[in-house]
Each structure stands twice: as structure tokens, then as C-alpha cells.
Design goal:
Helices cover 0% and strands 40% of the residues. The protein is mainly beta and 626 residues long. It is found in: Secreted.
């Protein structure tokens, strides 16, 4: 791009910078000029504003004053000129006919003539001679200063003031000059420069104006009144001084890691911007202390465990209401193979079963989204109170495992602290501990001996974490993150086993439940949907039964009206914590649900969170039969 023209008329030049570059996709990199063929380089200079400039009157400096002393006249040369190729060329005076021709003589004063100055005496005569300054303005009421100095009348040379009579020295004075009004001229207001250094451009707003009586005031007039004068350039150069060298980051290469924190290499060079052109300069020109790093940390994506969801299966029925399922697996960041679901428990597991509808089948009784609706004959209106002692349901025995002591195994312990003795409990023995939602459980293994080679172990599970121990189990301690704990011992060596104590305490760390959550431990009862005004979370009903006991839930009442607005966002999700299986129930159809283990979570979404009594269900414990 060419810069501004050097002249507004009469022929000027404008220049532009030309550099050798190489393209890398969308990026352009400066390379040495020797890399480009010299015969293909574009012109850097071109002619501009070739139209002729308007002519104007030009006057010379006044000649010698005609008077020996006192007032007189001084001649000067008046000519009509026109700028051509940067110089004033004299042309015929007809070209200046539209302008007022200046006079060819001006008034002048030599000095004050003394009395008897015409005498021919030999004695020197000294007089006070006026010294006149130039007029402060060429037009529009200027001023000039007049002061007096002592001169030799014959030689007109200045001498010291002691030769003249000090009492006759006139005082300094100011006089008006060039009182004729100035013609209107082009004026401008300049904007901000495009760059702070290295040569930029600034736009100017041009307008025609003349001065008024006040020196700082002006009167804007029509542009036509300035037509006799060349119009200045609207764009001017600015801030032409060189920019200081600086560091610039060019190319950044790919991250060394596909996920989590890695390192990326990048090119850092020293550049300088001069007259619109950025060039590479030696690195010594830039300050080393502020050089950007050539190796920087980078993060493409976070390496994490996630749920991978497969497509939905076909509906289970050819017509009417049925169910469809899909596989959900826990996948790690590096290997695309299913892992234990415990690695993905930090985020909700997607639903695996949902209802489906495959056109009508005639007169068929509607069923629930998941299971056939079953209405209870004697529903309970109020939930049973939570027990204060342990709930025990005897565990079923198998042919291969000896029966554990009923005093320890198969219990749901609800008291705040206690000691559990699992020594000599051969086979598989499970104990569950439950506390209010705002408490956690601290466990310490007081004594224990397990044979790891024979697969003896003790395991702890608190809904969020699973810990399995065998070696050095005695003396170990742990604190749960939730209000429930499942302890399972597998013992094949008679005489071995563990003894542990537990205490409950208030949870002072991050809570994993909401204020609207409800915890139930009773063997049977009725519950309703909890409500909340917070739109950032859901509400749950948590049911915990003794080990080796299943939970049955029967929906009794659904009072919501479903439409196209809330049908997708309003639903009930029941999670079977033993097998990490989730069922979703939508619509107004009542349903019945059975767990595989002893822990269930009922989670409410959408309008259920804001409508009191919109859902009511009965639950009960059922022994697990083999």
C-alpha cells in the first residue's frame, strides 16, 4: 500500500514498502530479500497529484528606502508564480488575475531628521534612528515594534547611545500593521495516529475558515471560499520515529500430550517495526530478561474417566408400551476398554432403561414406562418411625458357605457407636451401619488376622468409595464420606477375622447430600417427593436395608399433569446401588420396582421438585432368597 503523496499538486511522489515473504497456510513469514527474484520486485515509488497548482502573487524583500532621513518608499518586485516540480516558476500575470495584486512599493522610515541636518559642517552629527520590527501578521490586524538607537548621520552606522542626547530619545512604541482582513484558508483538526511509533498515518478533518477579531477564534465558511488555495492532504504521516525492538511469538507447535498437562515448543524472535514494515533483527537488540519462554505448558483436554453410552436397543414389544435398554460402560482416558464402574462414580451414570411406544395394539390396558402398574390393597398413609436399635434380617445360607453368627452378620446398625466382632465368622459376612445424613462414620480395626493366600479379605463401601484390605489390616482406620457404610468380610481360614470399632461424628467437610434429601432405614413405610426452591440440584430419597435384603417400591399416587413442555424434563430416576443400574419412570402410570441389593436412591427431576404431594409410594424390605 502506497503512502501519502509528497505534494498536493504540481507532481509529487508516494512510496511503499516491498518485502519478500513466504506463506504457511494462513500465516505469512518475512524472509530475506535475497530469496525473491529481484526482477519481479514491484515498484516502490510512483508519481502522484500531477495536476497543475494554482498561481499566486509573489513579492520580494523591499529595496533601499528612498529617504535619507524621515519617511520614504522602498520598491519591491511583484510577480505571478506557479509551483512546478517542487519549485516556483514565474508565469504570465493573467494567471493571477483573480487575486488582488500587492503594491510594488511600501512605506519606510530611515531616522529622525535633526535640526540643521542639511549643513555641510565637518563635525559628526548623531541622531536617534528608529528600528522597526517585522509585522507580527501578514494580514488581519498585526502589530510591529518601534524602538530607537543612536547612529552616525553621515555613515548611518550604529554607535553607543552616549553619543546622543538621552533626554530627546523617543520611547519604544507599538503600531498597527497589515490591517486588511485575511482571506479564508484551509484549516484542519488531526485525529489519533494509527501507531505509536514506527511511522503511521493520521486522518485530518479539513475545513475552510477565516480569523475573527479574537486571535483564538475563527469563522467556518463555505469550502468554495478556499478554492484559490490548494487543499491540504486529508491523510498525513505521524510518529515517524523508530519503534524499539521487541520479542514476538511466531509458530507454536502441537502439545506433547494428548490430554492433561504437556509441553509445547514455540518460535520466539526479535523484531522491529519501521515505516510500516516488521523485520527480524538480531536477538541482542531485544532485552533478554523479558524474552517469552520457548517451551510452555499446554492442555488439550482433561484426562478423566467417563461413561460411554451405546445406542438404544429396539423396543421390547412390536406394538403398545414396552422398554428398551442400552449398554453403559466406564472408559478410561488412554484405553478404550470397559473398567470397573467405581472409577466413574464421580459423575452420574446415564440411564440404561427407558419406556418406548410402538403404535397401538387395539384395546390394550396401558402399562408403566418400565413395569406393569400394581395398586396396593392396603397403602400406608404415613412412614414408620426409624428404629433406634439394629434391624436384623437373617441371612440365607448356601451349601458352600457356613452360616455366620446372627449377632453380627446381616445387621443394620443404627446406634452412634459400637464394636463389631467378625472373628471366626467363616464364609461371607456383611454388616451395614447407618447414620443421619449430616454425619460420617469413623472405623478403626482393633485386631485382625487374614490369610491373603486363601482369599481372606475385609472390604468397606460408603456409596462413593470401595476399600479392600488383607495385609496389615490391624490398626488401620478410615472415615466415610457419606452417612452409610457396608462392611463385608470373606473368611475361609477358621480362627481368623477382624474386630473393629466405629463412631459417628458430624460431617465437617464437603457434603454429598442436599438439604432436601431424605434418609429412610425403617423396614416399611410411605414417602412423598421432597421439594426445593433451588434450581441447581435435585432431591433424593435414600433407602438402606440390612445386608442381603432387597427393597420393593410401589408407586401409589402421581398427581402431575404432563404435556409437551414438561414431559421430557419431569421424571423419577431410581438407582440400584448394588449393581449401579438406573431406571427412569415418566408419565402418570404407576409402577413397581425391586432392587438387587440393599441400597436404593430415588431421584426427582423437573416439576416433582416444586409440587407438594405430587408423588407418593410405599416401600418395604424383602429377604434375599437363593
Amino acid at each position: 500500500m502506497f503512502g501519502p503523496c509528497s505534494a498536493s499538486c504540481g507532481g509529487g511522489e508516494r512510496v511503499r514498502s516491498v518485502r519478500c515473504v513466504q506463506k504457511h497456510g494462513a500465516d505469512v513469514e518475512k524472509i530475506p530479500d535475497s530469496k525473491c527474484p529481484p526482477d519481479t520486485a514491484p515498484n516502490t515509488v510512483e508519481k502522484c497529484n500531477l495536476q497543475q497548482c494554482p498561481a499566486r502573487w509573489r513579492v520580494s524583500e523591499p529595496g533601499e528606502c528612498s529617504a535619507v532621513c524621515g519617511p520614504g518608499e522602498a520598491k519591491r518586485i511583484v510577480s505571478c508564480v506557479r509551483p512546478e516540480d517542487g519549485q516556483d516558476v514565474e508565469v504570465d500575470q493573467s494567471f493571477c488575475s483573480l487575486q488582488i495584486e500587492p503594491p510594488d512599493s511600501v512605506s519606510c522610515v530611515v531616522d529622525v531628521c535633526p535640526i540643521g541636518w542639511e549643513s555641510k559642517g565637518e563635525a559628526p552629527v548623531y541622531v536617534w534612528s528608529p528600528v522597526v520590527s517585522q509585522c507580527s501578521k501578514t494580514c488581519g490586524n498585526g502589530t510591529l515594534q518601534v524602538w530607537f538607537s543612536c547612529v552616525d548621520h553621515q555613515t548611518r552606522l550604529r554607535v553607543t547611545d552616549v553619543h546622543c542626547d538621552a533626554s530627546t530619545k523617543p520611547p519604544p512604541q507599538s503600531e498597527a500593521c497589515n490591517t486588511s482582513p485575511c482571506p479564508a484558508t484551509w484549516r484542519s483538526k488531526q485525529g489519533v495516529c494509527s501507531v505509536t511509533c514506527g511511522g503511521g498515518v493520521a486522518n485530518r478533518v479539513l475545513y475552510c475558515a477565516r480569523e475573527t477579531e479574537g486571535e483564538e477564534e475563527e469563522e467556518v465558511v463555505e469550502d468554495s471560499e478556499c478554492s484559490d488555495f490548494p487543499k491540504p492532504k486529508a491523510v498525513v504521516s505521524c510518529n515517524d520515529y523508530s519503534c524499539p525492538p521487541r520479542w514476538k511469538v511466531f509458530n507454536t507447535f502441537p502439545c506433547s500430550a494428548s490430554c492433561d498437562l504437556g509441553v509445547a515448543q514455540r518460535t520466539v524472535s526479535c523484531v522491529q517495526f519501521v515505516y510500516g514494515k516488521e523485520s527480524l533483527v538480531p536477538e541482542e537488540s531485544c532485552h533478554p530478561a523479558v524474552k517469552p519462554a520457548t517451551r510452555v505448558p499446554c492442555l488439550v483436554q482433561v484426562c478423566t474417566f467417563r461413561w460411554e453410552v451405546k445406542p438404544w436397543s429396539q423396543c421390547s414389544v412390536p406394538c403398545g408400551y414396552g422398554i428398551q435398554s442400552r449398554a453403559v460402560s466406564c472408559i478410561g482416558p488412554s484405553k478404550h476398554e470397559p473398567l470397573s464402574p467405581l472409577f466413574c462414580m464421580h459423575m452420574p451414570k446415564p440411564i440404561t432403561i427407558q419406556g418406548c411406544y410402538m403404535a397401538g395394539c387395539g384395546d390394550v390396558l396401558p402399562i408403566s414406562d418400565v413395569t406393569t402398574a400394581v395398586m396396593p390393597q392396603h397403602p400406608l398413609d404415613h412412614p414408620s418411625p426409624s428404629p433406634t436399635a439394629a434391624i436384623t434380617i437373617p441371612q440365607a445360607t448356601s451349601k458352600t458357605s457356613p452360616t455366620p453368627k446372627p449377632s453380627s452378620c446381616g445387621q443394620l446398625l443404627l446406634i452412634e457407636s459400637g464394636t463389631v466382632d467378625l472373628k471366626n465368622m467363616t464364609g461371607r459376612c456383611t454388616v451395614s451401619i447407618g447414620r443421619p445424613l449430616d454425619e460420617v462414620i469413623h472405623v478403626k480395626v482393633e485386631s485382625g488376622s487374614l490369610n491373603c493366600r486363601k482369599k481372606d479379605y475385609v472390604a468397606f463401601f460408603d456409596r462413593l468409595a470401595f476399600v479392600k484390605k488383607c495385609e496389615q489390616v490391624a490398626g488401620s482406620e478410615l472415615t466415610t464420606r457419606t452417612n452409610v457404610l457396608l462392611v463385608r468380610q470373606n473368611l475361609l481360614t477358621p480362627g481368623n477375622g477382624v474386630v473393629f470399632t466405629y463412631t459417628s461424628q458430624k460431617n465437617t467437610k464437603k457434603s454429598h447430600h442436599q438439604d432436601c434429601d431424605i434418609q429412610l432405614f425403617s423396614p416399611t413405610g410411605v414417602f412423598e417427593n421432597p421439594r426445593t426452591s433451588n434450581t441447581n440440584h435435585t432431591c433424593r430419597v435414600l433407602i438402606n436395608a440390612p445386608p442381603l435384603v432387597k427393597i420393593r417400591i410401589q408407586a401409589l399416587h402421581i398427581g402431575l399433569v404432563f404435556n409437551s413442555t414438561n414431559s421430557q424434563s419431569t421424571y423419577i430416576m431410581i438407582r440400584d446401588m448394588d449393581v449401579l443400574k438406573t431406571n427412569v419412570f415418566k408419565g402418570q402410570q404407576l409402577f413397581q420396582w425391586h432392587s438387587s441389593g440393599n441400597m436404593a436412591e430415588i431421584e426427582f427431576h423437573g416439576d416433582y421438585l416444586h409440587s407438594k404431594g405430587s408423588f407418593r409410594a410405599e416401600y418395604s424390605f424383602m429377604p434375599l432368597l437363593y
